[in-house]
Amino acid sequence: MIAAILSAILPVFLVVGLAFVVRRRFTLDAKTLSTLNIYLFIPCLVFADLSQRRLEWAVFARYAGGAVLMLLCMTALLRFVAWLRGLDGAPQSAFMMTMFMNLGNFGLPLCKFAFGDEGLALAVVVMVCGSFLQNSVGVYFAQRTHYTVSESFRRVLKLPMMYAFALALISQRTGFQLPLTAFRAIRITADAAIPIQLMILGILLAETRLDTRANVFIATAVRLCAGPVLALCLATVLGLEGLAAKVFILQMSGPVAVGMSAYGVQFDVEPRFLASVVSWSFLCSILSVSTVLLVLSKLSF
Questions:
Q1: Bridge partners of 256?
Q2: How many C-beta atoms surround the C-beta of residue 80 within 10 A?
Q3: Helices (H), the chain
Q4: How many Cβ atoms from other residues are within 10 Å of residue 225's Cβ?
Q5: Is 54 helix (H, G, I), strand (E, B) or coil?
Q6: CB atoms within 10 A of CB 122
Q7: Alpha-carbon dihedral sign for residues 177, 179, 184, 185
Q8: Can you tell me the distance from the alpha carbon of 75 to that of 99, in angstroms, rounded to the nearest whole number?
Q9: Distance, CA of 161 to CA of 179 (rounded, Å)
């Protein structure tokens, strides 16, 4: 089991490390990459993956409900911790953004290696639900220090990811297919989303000295410790069983999403703090996720 986990995680570390080395030798612009990621690569990834997959709507509904409940629980918990720490403004917004877990480049390969192709298919459904919230609520938290609440949500609705999600659902339900040439172009672009996110992280690591203040490790601990416990409780409440429950719990137990560091750069919201939490949670997840897998192997749903 440990070998399986390491074989899923280590390639991701290698990509981040390569970007780190390249940035040390050459000048690269992380903000340009993050702009491409938000406005081009992510929408293409959402459309390409979701439009081509047949979803079990009962499982999708439970996963969607679980993602929303996880969001609400983590929001309440992090807001309380932020209040205890005296955080406000941009630091509070950045602290709240650490609730979002890495469902794609970390969760997908891990679920595939731990649970096989069936687990991977379920993990994709969780990723779709979580990505929708990350790219809407996550962006709201990133922008709210600069705009009013209503303006922040209006700006969220301008993101192409939202419409890619809607178009993918329409395409799946109606059977409409884009011309092959157009879809291949979208697929090629979509395939760049995950490595670009990892490269952004590597560049950020090379450009900044990692923050070691208490708030970084508190946010890391909340994500990696509270996440699995809340996910286990929610899986029980939602009536998830068997493999569907295990995949949900494992996906919700991952480190902070790489996209949050990209949003920190894009919207100038504590980029060093967010890059540090992403990095530390990523490193510490080797131990925490191994523990989650061990616990899941002992549980019966």
A1: 101
A2: 10
A3: 2-25, 30-36, 42-50, 57-85, 89-97, 107-134, 137-143, 149-156, 160-174, 180-190, 193-207, 214-221, 227-238, 242-251, 258-267, 271-298
A4: 14
A5: coil
A6: 24
A7: negative
A8: 7
A9: 20
Cα separation, 82 vs 180, whole angstroms = 49
Q: Residue 101 pairs with which residues in a beta bridge? A: 256
Position 8 pLDDT exceeds 80 = no
Distances (CA, A) of 42 to 54, 180, 287: 20, 20, 29
Kindly state the tokens that stand for 52: 């081509």
pLDDT tens per residue across span 64-93: 999 999 999 999 999 999 999 999 888 999
Domains of the chain with CATH codes: 2-298 (1.20.1530.20)
Q: Do residues 270 and 291 touch, judged by C-beta distance below 8 A?
A: no
Nearest to 231 by CA among 135, 158, 296, 144: 296
User: H helices of 26-136, where?
Assistant: 30-36, 42-50, 57-85, 89-97, 107-134
Mean pLDDT, rounded, of the chain: 86
